[in-house]
Amino acid sequence: MAEKKISPWVKAALDWGPLIVFFIAFNRLKDGTYTILGTDYSGFVVATALFIPLIAATTLILWLLTGKLSAMQIATLVLVAIFGGLSVWLNDPTFFKMKPTIIYLLFAGILGAGLLRGKAWLQLVMNEAMPMAHEGWMILTKRFVWLFLGLAVANEVVWRTMSDAHWVDFKTFGLPIIMIAFIMSQAKLFERHGIDTEESEEG
């Protein structure tokens, strides 16, 4: 299936919708205990149970609309299903809290393995949005490896030392803000190594 373009607003809604719904559900359910089929569940676990099928549905819709999913989207869905499923099945939110740590370590490991081979695999994901020379992608990939390692450590510190509410706030707002701030901070790198695709095509 060939890749198709969709509205940026639709893509943003599909990407961020499940997380926003999880945030709202958690805040509405966090103070209660809910008995389902004879088992008591915390609001955190119930919100997690809602999040899993929702992210699966939005990922499927995104694939149907675009004909393509990135490796990052597939890995995220698989890990949400595994760790979220374990949290619901074992009635223990710990597994779901560990999920961002595993994702960031996985991404850091994959990108790091590419760097050892002299390849910037980040370019495969982001080159269409930000065309750059190979040297620029190597630099950016190294920085992303350190970013992902830092986020993995941060997630571990937050969920192990703070309340569920603080962790949910951190996951919903903190992690995306850090990621956006990091990308914005790379403006000089994009400017120094960026490629003007229009000029390249004309030449």
Automatic annotation (TrEMBL):
Where is this chain's protein located in or outside the cell? Cell inner membrane
- Entry keyword set: Cell inner membrane, Cell membrane, Membrane, Transmembrane, Transmembrane helix
Pfam families per the UniProt record, alphabetical = IspA
Q: Write down the membrane topology.
A: Multi-pass membrane protein
- TM segment ranges: 12-29, 41-65, 72-90, 102-122, 143-161, 173-190
Protein origin, superkingdom: Bacteria
What does the record give as the function of this protein?
Plays a role in cell envelope biogenesis, maintenance of cell envelope integrity and membrane homeostasis.
Per the record, the similarity remark reads: Belongs to the YciB family.
What's this protein's name? Inner membrane-spanning protein YciB
Q: Species name for this entry?
A: Thioclava sediminum
UniProt gene name: yciB
